[in-house]
Amino acid sequence: MVRRAALSISALALAAILLLNFQGPGQASTLVIGTAGSGSGIASGTSSGAVSDATLAPTSGTTSGSSGSTATATAGPATGTATYAGDLVSTRFGDVQVQITVTDGAITDVRALALPVGGHSGQISNIVEPLLRSEALAAQSASIDVISGATYTSRGYATSLQSALDAAGL
Amino acid sequence: MTARAATAPAVAVAAVATMTAPGPDRGRLVHVEHVMGTALSIHVRAPLPDAGAIEAACAVLHDIDRRFSLYRPESELSRLARGEIEEAGLSPDVRWVLAACDDLARTSGGAFDARHHRADGVVDPSGFVKGWAVEEAARCLDDAGARNYVIAAGGDILARGESAPGRAWRVGVRHPGDPTGVIAVLAVRDGAVATSGCYERGAHIRDPRTAAVPHELVGLTVVGPSIAWADAYATGAFAMGLEGLAWVHGHTGYGALAVTSDERVTWTPLVEERLVRETRGEPPLSGSSHLAGVS
Asked: Quick one: pLDDT band at residue B252, thresholds 50, 70, 90?
């Protein structure tokens, strides 16, 4: 019981700190462009798959993201800048699409091209996104190799940061 | 339920490209395999194994999926669920997995229970099988001489060696509220990271002890030596709520990080040791681990 009491107290202290963090100043949240339950057509003109806007070491066989498929890519450390977008996928919470920007082999930006708004999920996105943007920037300097999260389906994979990392061959 | 099986057919690896970047330590290989209803990514750094090792690893995964998947009517577990075979008639490794799950049910006080967590009463050890399958598949890479690789299986990670000489693998923990968000970065060498939560597949985790959907946490991540046990601990600890952190902490070599439903984050001392705090500006996680000095 001593242990649990200590746990609760310190958890509460931590809560105060982290709540401040969560509500602290962040970048303007202008990335939420999805509409809950809407169909396609909100992806800012970005097609699925790898979208290269500069030179990049050649990547063979980018991942398809569709169920049941397999793909292998090998790539060396890239030079230059490129963006990689996951597929736009309609979920029961709305449309979701993830994009990363890679410069000289390191993630320099992570953004949601489409995120659900409205409802519980959208509320989370709107509140948390300023934090998420700063976390993504922290993450970029830490050069993430892989992502751990609650188990996604093959379909959910298309919207995951992991799929963007795989497509980039980092 | 059979629709799921149809969307994840066992597809043989068609081809494995072996192009590598110049230089002996710059080689890297990325492979994505859709199996067990999820996507499994394999990232290998030099020394690279031959192409056959990736094929062999994926064959192991598909074989385990065929025998264990409850989405496949012909699997041993589906036949067990229909009463067509007795447990004594199951193949040895299926029985071994069920025994491991029974052991976990005892040590978790029923918070992880492969026999009682489903409303329909079906014995479902999938919370353990996926991680175990990844460990079995990893042997193929080890046997082929791979020393540095990660396998990401639908959000659960097995890491071996380093991502570069002197640099541990860096595992981002996804924010429960957003697929682009990372709440923490963990440095892992020869270990596993597994996460349970209610944000990706909806409320699919029920507390076997109460049949209720846990609500105290939205995500719980476990770090430790084995992906199979890390995965099971994450499932059990998620059902326990914040108390689950202390339970995971009680297992030597394991630690946990939890995100509460009101968006607080807290973690155990072992996670504290693994946190990467290299940031620009504000640290992503401030405060200290809440179990420090309590054990």
From this structure: very high
DSSP letter at B87?
G
Bridge partners, B170 (sequence order): B187
Give the C-alpha separation, A85 to A27, whole Å. Answer: 22
Q: For residue B143, what are the contacts with CB-CB under 8 A and spacing of at least 6?
A: B53
Interchain pair A14, B8: CB under 8 A: no
* Backbone angles phi and psi of A12, in degrees to 5: -65, -40
- Cross-chain residue pair A131–B181, CB shorter than 8 Å: yes
- Residue A22, chain B, CB below 8 Å: the answer is yes
Give CA–CA dist A24/A136, Å, rounded: 16
Name B280's Cβ contacts closer than 8 Å, sequence gap at least 6: A137, A138, A141
Please give the residue that has the higher pLDDT: either B215 or B149.
Answer: B149
- CA dist A64 and B119 (Å) reads 35
Domain regions of chain B by residue span: 4-294
Quick: pLDDT tens for B211-247: 666 677 889 999 999 999 999 999 999 998 888 888 8
Please report residues of A whose CB lies closer than 8 A to that of B280. Answer: 137-138, 141
Rounded CA separation B249/B264 (Å): 19
Which residues make Cβ contacts (< 8 Å) with residue B20, sequence separation at least 6? A74, A76, B26, B27, B28, B29, B46, B48
Nearest-CA residue of chain A relative to B294? A3
* Chain B CB contacts of A125 below 8 Å: 177-178
Orientation angle between helical segments B227-240 and B126-143, nearest 10 degrees: 160
- Asked if the B4-294 domain carries CATH number 3.10.520.10, the reply is yes
A68 in contact with B, Cβ within 8 Å: yes
The span from the CA of B30 to the CA of B223, in Å, is 23
- Of B147, B164, B166, nearest to B48 by C-alpha is B147
- B278 and A142 within 8 Å at the Cβ level: the answer is yes
Share the mean pLDDT of chain B: 82
Whether residue B284 and residue A143 make contact (CB cut-off 8 A), yes or no, is: no
Candidate from A21, A112, A144 with C-beta closest to B185? A144
Contact assessment for residue A143 and residue A136, using Cβ atoms and an 8 Å cutoff = no
Q: A12, A70, A99, A141: which to substitute to probe chain B, counting the most B Cβ within 10 Å? A: A70
* Percent of chain A surpassing pLDDT 90: 1
Q: What is d(CA A110, CA B6) in angstroms, rounded to the nearest whole number?
A: 33
